[in-house]
């Protein structure tokens, strides 16, 4: 199984990774729409390969409080995946799912709302991984989601510590999705091992 050097990735390989990001985010948005029984529109995602130290700036800075939902990837792909959003985005999605109208500035979540947030993350990540599995024809499973509400720098330190020793880059898929009332940003961060990046590209003929 081939390894890949993320610092020397060519345009065709990056285009494939970008397309994986687009399709995965699209599937996740569809699943979210079905879950909350409301039409959700999504802008074309921005996809980039970034160093871990750059990720927190994208989500508002290292001290910005965010909701992070982390999964460990297993099967034929090893690594981690994270879905992140800021608190106002999380509040809006919880309101949509639960039919509530809590002010978006309210940062405290009840146990039931936290459970709903966890389920949203589960559905989104499941749809994303399902599309990745279908595209590559590879078996990919994920762990039970681990959710944390903390500063983005603290949340991102978990995969950075885990995978910093084998590579310093992650695939960031930044997408804006929303309903008629509000558009929110969500961030998918896909962190396969270098061997798994090679396996993904190999499965697609690259």
Describe this structure in words.
The protein has 206 residues and is of the alpha+beta class. It has a single domain (6-203), classed as 3-Layer(aba) Sandwich (Chemotaxis protein chec). Helix content is 45%, strand content 27%. The protein has helices at residues 11-36, 52-58, 87-98, 111-136, 152-163, 194-203, and strands at residues 41-42, 46-51, 65-75, 79-86, 140-142, 146-151, 169-178, 183-192. Strands 1, 2, 3, 4, 5, 6, 7 and 8 form an eight-stranded antiparallel sheet that branches. Strand 7 (169-178) and strand 8 form a beta hairpin. Helix 2 runs antiparallel to helix 5 (152-163). The longest helix is centred in the N-terminal third of the chain and has 26 residues, at 11-36. The mean pLDDT is 79. One of its GO terms (biological process) is chemotaxis. Keywords: Chemotaxis, Hydrolase. This is Chemotaxis protein CheC. It comes from Mobilitalea sibirica.
Oligomeric state of this protein: single chain
Under the CATH scheme, the architecture is: 3-Layer(aba) Sandwich
What's the main sheet like? 8 strands, antiparallel
Helix content: 40-55%
Kindly list the characteristics that best describe this protein:
206 residues, alpha+beta, Chemotaxis protein chec, 8-stranded antiparallel beta sheet
Helix/strand layout:
Blueprint: H1 11-36, E1 41-42, E2 46-51, H2 52-58, E3 65-75, E4 79-86, H3 87-98, H4 111-136, E5 140-142, E6 146-151, H5 152-163, E7 169-178, E8 183-192, H6 194-203
Antiparallel strand pairs: 1-7, 2-7, 3-4, 3-5, 3-6, 4-8, 7-8
Helix pairs in contact: 1-4, 2-5, 3-4
């Amino acid at each position: 199984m081939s390894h890949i050097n993320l610092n020397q990735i060519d345009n065709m390989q990056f285009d494939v990774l970008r397309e994986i990001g687009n399709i995965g985010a699209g599937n996740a948005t569809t699943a979210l729409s079905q879950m909350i029984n409301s039409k959700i529109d999504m802008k074309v995602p921005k996809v980039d390969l970034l160093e871990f130290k750059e990720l927190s700036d994208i989500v508002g800075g290292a001290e910005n409080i965010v909701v992070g939902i982390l999964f460990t990837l297993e099967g034929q792909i090893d690594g981690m995946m994270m879905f992140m959003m800021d608190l106002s985005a999380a509040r809006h999605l919880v309101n949509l799912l639960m039919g509530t109208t809590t002010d978006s500035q309210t940062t405290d979540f009840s146990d039931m709302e936290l459970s709903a947030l966890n389920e949203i993350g589960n559905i989104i990540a499941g749809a994303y991984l399902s599309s990745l599995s279908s595209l590559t024809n590879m078996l990919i499973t994920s762990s039970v989601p681990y959710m944390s509400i903390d500063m983005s720098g603290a949340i991102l330190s978990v995969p950075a510590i885990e995978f910093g020793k084998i590579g310093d880059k992650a695939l960031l898929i930044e997408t804006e999705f929303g309903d008629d009332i509000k558009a929110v940003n969500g961030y998918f961060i896909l962190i396969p091992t270098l061997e798994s990046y090679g396996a993904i590209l190999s499965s697609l003929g690259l």
